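Bench notes, afternoon.
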Amino acid sequence: MRKLILILCSALTVSCSTPARSTEETTEAPKERIVSLNGTLTEILCASGLESSIVGTDVTSAFPESIQKLPKLGHVKSLNAEGIIALSPTMVFGKKDEIKPELEKQLIEAGIKVLLFEQEYSVDGSKRLIKEVCATVNAEESGKKLITKIDEDLKGISSMTHVPRVLFIYARGAGTLMVAGDGTQMQKMISLSGADNAVNGFPDFKPLTPEALLEANPDVILMFESGVESLEGENGIWSIPGMADTKAGKTKQLVVMDGLYVSGFGPRLGQAVTELNKKLISVNQTSN
């Protein structure tokens, strides 16, 4: 009997000395499931440490490369709510001028938090977008670091002895050639790099014609890598009607960069501007 009492007391002592785990310690907050419907927003989220929370993106989300393994929902202009809802997201990120109101309504009715942002194509606009996106996911410190990085990268811009006239051509095959006018991200990027946009006097993009090309008479042609590929290489560029009679066509001055990198106005803005600046200085030295 005495042995039994000692065993019971010993068991009680062990039980009392082992602290009970509280519900608060063992219950973790549910992880967000994010769908990002814009390449720049995806880049900001990933740079802020949220890549593991992203479960799907649109086709413009191409950076970082690791994001390519996720389901692609198509182009933002042709998205349907069913495809997004099927990924069971808790949050959807997009741009105000890209997401259709009916799509936004369907997602909200499905109980999904929809976060839409405005983007201004400027250094301050990029910083503001980064700050706003990071604030929504409690990553303010990451946002500060990304903004500081932009400022540091922009210090690498060099002045040009000759300011080149740069014509950006958006191409989707020889049948679709567009040039960037006032207020476009490419016009702003060319200006930030220290060069002049070869065309002006119209907003947005407009079709490229031989007459407009000759009037612009650019020193340098700027294109996306995807655009050059759609024309089957550089020979396709120099074969554009009217190109041979321009300064750029005569000297074969071409700068090619990744589309999202040079037009995204996201965390890599300073890096992209500096790289464009250096490429333009390089081709200037070659042609002069």
